[in-house]
Design goal:
alpha/beta; 15% strand; 40% helix; six-stranded parallel beta sheet; 13 strands; 14 helices; Rossmann fold; single chain; seven-stranded parallel beta sheet
Length: 368
């Protein structure tokens, strides 16, 4: 038996981990070779991606969600008399001697960040301790990149390396080059705007992206949550308030069109466990400017658009390269080729093999 805990769908409306977990659960729910139960809590339907998965009622276990925001920092009590696999979408393990615990490690940004405020610092300490505890007690650890594995062994060096498997994230088939773009769906005409996709936490260097675009004639399209007052004030300070748009709740179909028509995706993040938008953009035929740090060079492949330092000058040098049609086409072709290395089906099959391996080795141990 495999128990999958979908707690991320209650904690997030959308986000990188939701994307990863959605792709895994969607395949598990339709894989009748495996005996699977999905543990869920109230609020899952608020998650945009969870709504797209059809999980049979017979496979669902609904649990009490009272104080879930607090309880999510602690391990799960799960009564089951036979050996079973437990895999949570968060850093949680099952407190049961029969449990074979799996965890997926996405990144170590919590260990690197310095949040403001006493409460946020307390929550960071709590979450970091939760991550340490889960990693130390897990039987199988899945890292989404070699860089994440490196960070794991750096921050938690007493972990047995033999427990760790690197399984790359995939990329949705919703992203592909479009021959005929529907201009009515675009925020600006093709090749006149730069895309910024995802979180705008400090390490994502959103302000650098704004400043770089402000000194060009390009517009800026931001895909993510609504802008804060501080972000709006900074955009006005950079004098691009008449050439930017911030769009929330963008589905894959529309985002694919945005990628196809963009001048580029600007992704100057200082730290990534993987960086899914990089591969999405490449698969859609969109050039990607990214910072040469953490997992990015491991994921992005061959490209002259890796900036060596976080500066407007470096970004503008990449903008200049992309204005050369021959260079631009080569970058796009290399990106599409690189994106073919990543597939959610491949990711799923690798994790499924780990599940099957865990069951096999457990049965061998029990037979002795």
């Amino acid at each position: 038996m495999i128990f999958i805990e979908n707690i991320v769908f209650s904690n997030q409306k959308i986000g990188g981990i939701s994307v990863v977990w959605h792709e895994h659960v969607r395949r598990l729910a339709n894989d009748w070779d495996l005996e699977v139960k999905f543990i869920e809590y109230a609020g899952t339907q608020n998650n945009i991606l969870r709504r797209t998965i059809d999980i049979p009622q017979s496979k669902l276990i609904l649990r009490n969600s009272v104080f879930l925001n607090f309880r999510r920092f602690f391990n799960v009590r799960l009564a089951y008399r036979l050996p079973f696999i437990f895999h949570s979408s968060s850093y949680r393990i099952a407190k049961n001697k029969n449990a074979i615990n799996f965890i997926t490690v996405h990144d170590f940004i919590y260990f690197l960040s310095t949040p403001k405020g006493i409460i946020n610092r307390f929550l960071k300490c709590l979450h970091c301790q939760q991550i340490r505890n889960a990693i130390q007690k897990a039987d199988y650890i899945i890292c989404v990149s070699n860089n994440t594995k490196f960070d794991l062994l750096k921050f938690i060096p007493n972990v047995e390396e033999s427990k760790i498997s690197v399984v790359y994230n995939g990329v949705s088939n919703d992203y592909f080059p479009i021959t005929e773009i529907k201009y009515a769906n675009l925020p600006y005409p093709p090749n006149t705007y730069v895309l910024f996709v995802g979180s705008r936490s400090n390490y994502k260097n959103f302000r650098l992206a704004v400043a770089a675009v402000s000194k060009t004639e390009l517009s800026l399209v931001i895909v993510g949550k609504e802008l804060s007052e501080d972000e709006i004030a900074y955009i006005k300070k950079q004098s691009i308030e008449d050439r930017y748009k911030c769009l929330s709740g963008v589905d894959n179909v529309l985002l694919n069109q945005f990628y196809n028509a963009a001048f580029c995706l600007l992704y100057p993040s200082s730290y990534e466990g993987f960086g899914i938008p990089i591969i999405e953009a490449q698969k859609a035929g969109c050039p990607v400017i990214a910072y040469d740090a953490s997992s990015v060079p491991e994921i992005i492949g061959k490209t002259p658009l890796l900036i060596k330092e976080l500066s407007i000058e470096e970004i503008h040098h990449c903008f200049t390269l992309l204005k050369d049609k021959k260079i631009r086409n080569e970058i796009i072709e290399d990106g599409i080729k690189n994106s073919k290395k990543f597939s959610w089906d491949k990711t799923y099959e690798q994790i499924k093999k780990l599940y099957e391996s865990a069951v096999y080795f457990n049965s061998m141990a029990c037979s002795k």
